[in-house]
Each structure stands twice: as C-alpha cells, then as structure tokens.
Amino acid sequence: MSRHKVVISLPEAAAMIKDGDRVGIGGFVTTNKPLGILREIMRLRRQDLTVVAPPSSMEVDLLLGLGMVRKLITPYLGAEAIAPLGPFHSGWAGKHFAIEETDLGTLVAGLRAYALALPFMPTRGIVGTSIASLNPTLRPVEDPFGGPPLIAVPPLEMDVVLIHASQADCYGNVQHLGAVFLDPLLAQAGKKVIVQVEKIVSSEEIRRNPGNTTLACEFVDAVVLAPYGAHPMASQNYYRVDADFLNEYVRVAKACVKGQPEQFEEFVARYIDAPAGLSEYLERVGLERLFALGEGA
Amino acid sequence: MQATAKELAAIFIARQINNGDYISLGTNLPVPAAGVLLAQITHAPDAKINVLSYFVNLAGMDSFPDLGQIANPSVVRWADGVMPVEQLIYGIRRMDLCFAGGIQIDRYGNTNLIGIGDDPQNLKFRGPGSVGTATVMANCRKFFIYTNDHSPRTFVPKCDFISAFGWGDGGADSRTRLGLPGEGPRFVITPKAIMDFDETSKAMRLKHLLPGTSLEELQASAGFELLVPDQLPEMEPPSAEELSLLRTRVDAKGYLRQT
User: What is the pLDDT of residues B106-138, one digit of tens each?
Assistant: First the structure.
C-alpha cells in the first residue's frame, strides 16, 4: 500500500469550509496570507464565520466587507504604514460583526490551552486592561499559590486553519523557508489544516533538509498548489506586498463604508467573483505587476 | 538643515538604549525604530533587536530601506535567527525595552488601541487592536510610549479602554499590587515633547520641550494637567555624527524630515 497523497484543488479546499465554521487564518499582518483559498471562500460567500487570526490585514477586512463574518478574534487589523486601517473593521465593528477582544499573548494562551487539551491557560498579560472585561470568554482566576489573581483563557478551537507557506510535498510535509509566525501553533489548534504553497516539491527535496520542515504531515490535512497565492500580500522568498493594490482596496472600501458601495462592488466583481480560478485572478492582476513584486522580496 | 522634532525624538530614544539591551520593535512605529537603529550603529552594536519573527542585528547595515515597513520580511537579510512569533511572548523575561502606541494615552501612561466611545458594541472609532502590547508591556522590563499626535484627542484624562496598562489610576505601587512584573512606562515621546512620570503619583510630567512648541502650546495639547518641573532643561542637542548617521543610514527616505 502506498502513502496517501493530500494534494487537492482550490475549489476542493474551499468546500472544506462550511457556513458557521471557526476559521483560523495564518501569516502575519501583510505576509504569508492564504488568499488563494480565501478568494474561493469569498466567491462562495460563506456565512456566519468566526475568524481567528494573528495580526491581520486586508484579507480579514474583505471578509468583513463581504458580510461573511459573525465574530472576529484578532489582536490587530491594519497594514503598518503601507495603508490605513481596515475600513470595514474600523467602520462596521459591533454593527455588522462582533469582536472578541484579545491580544497576542491572550491568543497564544488560548491556542496553547486547546493544543494541550486544558480547560484554560492562565495569563497575567491582560491584568488591569479592558481586554478581560470586553471578552466574555475570559474569567478571573485565583492563583493557587497565593499571588494576585490571573485571567483564565479558555481553549481557542478552530474547525479549519488556512496557511500559506513556501513548499510542501504531496504528503503534507510543509516548509516555510522563513518565518513561521504563529502557523505551527494555529495548526496544532485546528481540527482541519489546509496549507497552500508556492511550490509542490518531491519527498526527496523535503528530506534533503527535514530540519526545515515547519509542519510535519501529522498537522496537515490538505495541500493546495497556489503560486502567487498570497497576492496582494507578501510571500516570503517569493514576492513583496503589493502596496498599490492595498491602497486601491482601502480607497474603495472606505467609500463603501461611507455609503458609496459602487466601486467596492466593482472591485469584488473584478477580483473575487469573475475570475474562474487563481490563474484568471493573476491574469487580471497582470504578469508584469506580479513579476515586479519579486524584486527585493 | 536643523534637526526636526521627530529626529530629536529618535535621537533621545537612541541615547536611552544600552549596549546589549534586548529590544522588541512593534509594527508602525517609525520614530522608535529609527532610535533603536541609530543606537545599534553607534554605541549599541550588541543590542538585540526583535522584529516580529526576526531576531536581527543591524550594526553592519549600509542603509535601512523603509522605516515605515519595519514589519516586513525583507528584514530577514539582517536576521541571526527566525523564530515563531510566540517566542516574543516566551522571551519576555529577557526583554529590556519595548514601545507602545495608542489612539488614546492618559496621564498615568495607560494606552488604548482598542477604540473610542462608551459602548463597546457601538464605538465612535474602532482602533487597530492591542497587537501584543497588553502582554508585552505587563512583563517587559520597561517601555516607552510614542505617538505622532500630541493633541487633546490622544492625550486624555482617562482612556475609554486600556489595551496596555501603565500606572492604572496612579501610585508607585499600582503595578506591583496587580502582580505585573514589568517596571512600567518610562517615557512618553512625541514630536512636541518628551515626558516622564512623577516618582510618587506616577502622573505624566514634562521633561524636555522639543523645538517649535512653547510651554503654553504644550499644556493646551493635553486634555489633562501635565506636571511641569521647576527646572526644564533643554534636551542635549544632537551631535553632527548622530544627525548625519540618522539621515544617511537610518532614514535615507526622510520619513523623520517630513513635517
């Protein structure tokens, strides 16, 4: 009997995400975002999602703008100095979706609690802040050793976790070849883990440097080939963030929040709904533009 | 060209850094980033700098490409190590210095990145979120607060929400009472002034006015009464070397020279 191959197509990956799912999104701010899979899910307009994301950016703001998110759990949504805040995040919070307030340390505590099958992980990081009172899942807890009270963070579980990485073999052994951000911890807290990669390489290539493997196949359910699949975000070793694209998005999204949805609708039609798949999306962005993003990546 | 207020703020930050300090740089704080990089290429070649997942040393860099995008994978070219982001949380006990920003900052050094308004479900303005500031500022040895917006909009008597705890409602024991290990906020730095905190009350206190701002103007720039000491020395002016290195190697794009 031969080993099971886990490579699937983007539409097959999108079919693994259902309405109401808790979806984890890997990467960090504007780097390594699984936009290939996310655009497929956006095209299907999956509803009532709970999104769990480390510091996030336009990919999450767009999910909010498409009305797909019921609850957002992220310590940050923005794009540094590249582009202003997510317009839907800052304009629609509380009105069109709920926020479960968190910070990076709290997120890590919740993911660790799930990964270790514990009822909670204590943290001191948010003692004294408003986070504990804004997030109803958090509770004060006594220190059994007599110190001041701590905050208990319950397990943060996800139905499916989506990750972007450099390469994988067909069995689901993944190599980021760079920073992993919070991806391994997210994967350990996901019931299903889908990784999109720039390249699918041979098992021999992976085994040449098994120390480079960042997610062994134990933690990966499916691999999807998605070259340029993080665009407009950066993909480590491959391309930089497309700052012009982000600023264009912010412009149309801001107008939409202010009650002028036409240009946002055009943007969604052009980049989400009309392209039949990743290659048609990339054609619309344009090869020249994509290749230029490789400079200094 | 005279040093701009942002350049002076960066130079002040550089001078606070000791060689060997472990410093974590957050997202979107170009002036603190400039201060840390200037320290690194002058007196602190052994400062240990962490940017996101990247553990970098920039002592040998020719010129930093873009202070506005410090959280960019291109910093990997100066990385000695690339580690998971949670290492930032696990490494806190060794962290000497970190920086917090805020859409609101109050007189006791609490900061707010969450939002503005009374009703959390219906905020007037939703901020970007706490990033890692809550956990990091609770634990790291000391932190500096930086903002470009020194106005009553940002400097409020009390934050609507607290994302990183400073000195709470005031008092030198306000952190130890909660069991917070870090020594708390040390300076508040803006393009108008540099401030510290009174040793007993922990209320914000003026330390240096930066050029272009009068005392009267500064006092009108905060929604609370800033403590003003009897002696108000000017910040020691930048040396020709500090200014030249800042402009040629740290901030060639001139981010700090824009008004």
Answer: 999 999 999 999 998 889 999 999 999 999 999
In the chain, the amino acid numbered A106 is T
Question: DSSP states of B16-33 as a string?
Answer: HPPTT-EEEE-SS-HHHH
Whether ipTM > 0.90 holds is yes
Q: Are residues A177 and A243 in the same domain?
A: yes
Domain parsing of chain B, residue ranges? 1-95+233-259, 100-228
Task: State whether CATH 3.40.1080.10 applies to domain B100-228.
Answer: yes
Tell me the backbone φ, ψ of residue A133, rounded to 5 degrees: -85, -25
Q: Which residues of A touch B134 (CB under 8 A)?
A: 103, 105-106, 125-126, 129, 131
The CA distance from B50 to the nearest CA of chain A, in Å, is 13
Give residue-wise pLDDT tens across range A83-111: 778 999 999 999 999 999 999 999 999 99
Prior bond of A232 cis (ω within 30°): yes
Domain count within chain A: 2
**Higher per-residue pLDDT: B33 or B71:** B33
Give the structural domain span for A135: 121-154
Report yes or no: B172 and B200 within 8 Å, Cβ to Cβ: yes
| CATH number of residue A261's parent domain | 3.40.1080.10
Q: Does the beta-carbon distance from A93 to B53 stay under 8 Å?
A: no
State whether A127 and A273 are in the same domain.
no
Exposed, middle or buried by CB within 10 Å (0-12, 13-18, 19+), for A214? Answer: buried
Phi, psi dihedrals of residue B156, rounded to the nearest 5° = -110, 155
* A60 contact B CB<8A: no
> Rounded distance, CA A29 to CA A284, Å?
24
CB contacts of B138 in chain A (<8 Å) are 124-128
